[in-house]
Amino acid sequence: MNPDVIVIGGGAAGLMCALIAGQRGRRVTVLDHANRVGKKILMSGGGRCNFTNLGTTPDNYLSANPHFAKSALARYTPHDFIALVEKHGIAYHEKERGQLFCDVSSKLIVRMLLDECAQAGVDIRTSCTIEDVQRDGDGFALRTTHGPMACASLVIASGGLSIPSMGASGFGYDLARRFGHAVLPTRAGLVPLTLSGKHLDRYSDLSGVAVPEVEARSARKAFRAGLLFTHRGISGPSILQVSSYWQPGETVHIDFLPDTDASAWLGAQREAHPDRELKTLLSEALPKRLAQRLCELEFGQRPLRQYAVAALDDIGRRLKAWPIVASGSEGYRTAEVTLGGVDTDGLSSKTMASRHVPGLYFIGEVVDVTGWLGGYNFQWAWASGHAAGLAV
Hints:
The protein is of the alpha+beta class. The protein has helices spanning 12-23, 39-43, 70-75, 78-87, 107-119, 171-178, 197-203, 237-243, 262-272, 278-285, 288-299, 309-319, 376-389, and strands at 5-8, 28-31, 50-53, 61-62, 92-94, 99-102, 123-125, 130-136, 139-144, 147-151, 153-156, 183-189, 193-194, 210-217, 222-229, 233-235, 251-255, 322-325, 328-329, 337-342, 360-362, 370-371. The chain has 13 helices and 22 strands.
């Protein structure tokens, strides 16, 4: 017997949609081309899954339509998902800035979703490739490596292009176009930035040096979090966040002392400790190798008394807006998310249903809604999956 609903994609959004629809009495089949479901859940948060963020608001998302996510996020909140986690006895903790992680393992989140699906009678099939999808009367006919299937409602939860080594593909975008949907340009988001030429030469040997908190600024947005130098460029949470707003050719400005009036601090230190070398002083506020490099590149390495007050003022200003010229990003290979995707103008914000094809739905990362780093993308997956699950 054919199911009522087929969900293509066994990630966070797809499993949530399936279990909600199954709880409503719908016969649901989940199809995933990988050999197991929930692979991105398993790898997330260093294996502990940053499964939501207590501070989730629509302002934490990028989309051509910033209002689109409001309905789904309001109807399924972080506290709704926390209630499910607690129902299954999964221990969790808040790490920072509202980010919730499993105490033990992300495997527990996948097991929770699979248990809920099992209780709702959801049929999950892995290692199943979709070869063709056609409109068939009021429903859909699928040709798969598990044989032909048909359904009344079809949900596309196939994700984006990030981390192709885990099976990411453009399947959802291709199918959306076939059924008359616009797909906005995609690019890697939440991704390390790369440097080249002289810009890389300046920093490449600082690979592994981390600054616990900076403020990284692009032309459109600023984020306070950690910075990490890599052998190819810059990374860390502040850079991953900024990468979603950064455009090629833009300079990223780094405030190395976000809680300090750097010019006033340097001036006071000159008065109190005139014989201290500048690099020694900066090493108290920054990693030693970084402080030395900044002095080598621009500031000099003299005792403080040999710097004029105006010169220290200038150094202070530069420490608050240090320019780094990125040439590109690491791309989809290491990106946590895909920006862009299925245009929300063609979807219902309440149900995630297609406005062009009755019975067709798009949820999760395949849609042009992308969250910040810190559990926001999982919350969008749960919320959009929940919205579709109530409608299919």
